[in-house]
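Hey, resending since the last one bounced:
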Amino acid sequence: MHTDTERCVRAVQSKDARFDGWFFTAVLTTRIYCRPSCPVVPPKPENMTFYPSAAACQQAGFRACKRCRPDTSPGSPEWNQRADLVARAMRLIADGTVDREGVPGLAARLGYSTRQIERQLLAELGAGPLALARAQRAQTARLLIETTALPMAEIAFAAGFSSIRTFNDTVRDVFALSPSELRNRRPKTTVLTPGTLTLRLPFRAPLNPDNLFGHLAATAVPGVEEWRAGAYRRTLRLPYGHGIASLTPKSDHIACRLTLSDLRDLPVAISRCRRMLDLDADPVAVDDQLRTDPVLAPLVDKAPGRRVPRTVDEAEFAVRAVLGQQVSTAAARTHAARLVTAHGEPVDDPEGGLTHLFPSPEALAAVDPESLAMPRTRRTTFTTLVGQLADGTLHLGVESDWTETRAQLLSLPGFGPWTADVIAMRALGDPDAFLPTDLGIRRAAQELGLPSTPAALTARAAAWRPWRAYAVQYLWATDSHPINFLPV
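The structure tokens again:
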């Protein structure tokens, strides 16, 4: 979008927050860059230039605006609605892959050469993977400076910098302030809790929290997830350790409290929480498309801004999808809770009732199949899935190709279209995944006068593309009957 100068100028002049994260405005006279909704008086159009990423602005020598803080914009919705190389690379960078494995590790995950990845990222985002990761480290550093009392040296290494000097130089380059000056600008009312980070997760309005948090709370696995005091809480398995996230919906943000065993996991924890809550979505684009169907339009108008509840761990969700085949939601939670108690890693949660991390595929692969309280055919499905996840034959991650992975899932014994598509929708993040065989969807379709057979409903849903996963959320909301059994 940043190449459409006229459209970008209009968005800046109207201070339209819907475009925050889509592009960044660099002001040639002041050498700062802003989000489109920056509250200051807009510069003259001839003094504006536009970039697709904060990293590109920084590489061009611009510093972040101290007023609108463009580094805290929602992420671009492009990376969660596309499955091409650039989008998959951006999801991996947000998940901290470059910091942990370097650019060669990123390339290996994607199956391309480092030169190809650098060329494509530079062409579309104006910055290569190292610059994009640097921008993310700067934002992580700012969060730690403003939300903790940690010494600067600890913050530098927790944010992923290789040296204190690099940390100091980067913070000054990006924010035009030293780390100490950033900390001094922190509001005096800020309350710091040792071991806990408190931050705000922005999103594009509107956001309807009912289906999002309601679904997560209704399917919560005891010990791993809970709804407590108006917040959804869950344990997190992270690259360097573990954590606990507490997420509370507010009118203009999600209040997030993180307790981490290793602060190096902060950017990954934030990225996974945002992904689980689908906070980088563009609800206006989604709802406008769905409103073109006269049957869906009243549903969208009644409760706009529905998101797709996703996951913080793709392998965990796949296992839970298998446990939920042909049983009630309550039974699926019971099966999952037994596995958690027997094979999950214990964690300490002084603030609530979280007790374990969900078992890893390696731990589940060692489970005696005879100990599983499920039919023999589903045991085979379960053991095949966790075996392939454990040995790497099947990999589910933010970089997964949606089409190829769905085909790979369908080749597993006991995997039908519903299981593959619900994993594609909620674990892989495919915004166009659809569940025409789902009992709740078929009942809702019948009540609304839509075709209720899978083939006919799929044909009707072609007009909803590429947002059929969001149409599922609106259809589920109309079903007044509990879904007792889930298909395969």
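Residues 48 and 135 are 21 Å apart (CA to CA).

Sorry for the duplicate.
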